[in-house]
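Q: Here's a chain of 460 amino acids. Please give me its 3D structure as C-alpha cells.
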Amino acid sequence: MSGFYQRIRVGFIIVFGLMCLLGITSTSVQGKEFESAHVDRVILNSEINSASLRLLTRGLERASSDGAHMLIVEIDSPGGDLDSMKSMTQKILASSIPVVAYVTPGGGRAASAAAFITLSAHVAAMSPTTRIGAASPVTSTGSDIGSTLKAKITNDLVASMTSIQQRYGRNIPLATRMVTQASSYDDATAIREHVVDLGAPNLGVLLQQLNGRQIRMYSGQTVTLSTAGVTVQDVSETPVGVLYTFLLNPTVIFLLFIVAMVGLYLEISHPGAIAPGVTGSIALLLFLFGAGSLSPNWAGLALMGLSFVLLVLDVRLSTHGVLTLGAALSLVVGSLIFFDSGSSGPYSGAQLNPWFIYGAGAVVVLLGLTIVVFAARVRRMKARSGVEGMVGAHVVALTPLTPEGRVRYQGENWAATLDSSDQIVDSGVNLEIVAVERLLLHVRPVVTYMRDDDKIAPPD
C-alpha cells in the first residue's frame, strides 16, 4: 500500500504545481497597466454561481484600483443560485465606483437571479430584443416549492426588490411582479415603464447616453459620469477562474469522482499499474475542490465513498459480485442525494441529469463484475511460477535415485530425492515433483493406470 499512497502524493504535487502556475499567471495579468481614460467591463454570460461572484468581485476590485470611470457588467444569464445572487447584489450596491448593468446582446436575457443583479446596478440598461424578469423562487428542478417556505422566500425577495427600485427611483410594482407573478418584460416595456433606466442598441451608444449622468453612490456622494471618448478594458477571467468555473459544473464534478473511483480501484486491484493510481488521485483532489463549492449534503458523499469500499472488498472477498451490486446502488443513491442538495433552493444553477448517474452505476457494475470474475478465475488457476508452480511438474532422472540423485527440470540440473525412501529408479525415468525444499526436489515416479487390473504401477 506504500506505493498507493506514494501515487496519491504525486497526484497532489501535480495539482498543487498546476495551481501555483495558474496563480502566477493570474498575478501577472492583474499587474497590467491601463489607460487613464477608460471603463472596465465584465461579461456575465453563464449561470449565476460562485464563479460569477468571483468574476464580479475581480471586476469591482480592478475598476477601483486602476482608475476606471465605472464598471460595465454585460449580462445574458438564465439565473442561478440564491446565495451567489445575494452576495453579488450586495457588492454592487456597496460599490465605491459606479456600476452599469447592460442586458445584451439581442435575444439575451436577465432572468431570475440575473434580474436582481441587473436592477441592483446604479444604471440598468437593455439592448433591443432582450428581456428581464421571471424571478419567482423555485426548487432545484424548476418546480414549485412548499407554500410556507415559498412565502418566506418570496416576501424576502419582494422586500429586496422594493428597496433596490426605491433607491434608484424605478418602477416598484412591475419589478415586484417579477417575483410574485414570475412576470417578464421585453426591453421596450421595461424602458417605457421605467423598470430599467436606459435602452441602447450597442455599447458605444450607451456610453454616449451615460456621459454627464449623475449617480448617487452608497456613501451618499453624487458622481457625474464622464464617458465621452473613453476606451473599454475587459476584465477577463484568470486561468484559475476558468478552471474554477469548469470544476463547478455538476457533470464535471461527478465525472471526476467516477474517474477517481475507477482509477484508485484499478490501482488497488492491480498494484503497480501506476497510471490509474496517479490519474485517480488527481481526479479525487479536483473533485474535492469542486464539490466544496456546492454546499452539498455530505451524507450523499459518504454513500458515494462507501461504493468504492464495497468494490475493493468484492475483489478481496468471495462474495460472487454481491458487494459490487451494493456498490452500484450506493453510488446511485449517494450521487442523487449529493448533487440534488448541492444545487437545491430558489434560483438554482446547472443540474446533473439523473440518467447520467444511472449510466455511471451500470458502468461500475460491469467493470466491477468483470474484475471480480477475472480475480476468481485467477484464484482457481494453478500457480505457474515460484514454488507452487513447480509442484506437479515433470522431471527426468539424470542419475539413478537411490533414493537421492540428480534430475533435469526445465533444462536445469537439480538435486532430488525420492518421496519414498524404499524406492529406487534408474536414469531416464519420468518423475513428478511433489514438494520443494529449498534447492532439493522431492519426487516420485509418474504413475499410470493399468488396463488389466486397474493397479497403479510405474512405467517400464
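Q: Can you summarize the key feature?
A: Confidence is low (pLDDT under 50) at residues 22-35, 139-144, 341-349.
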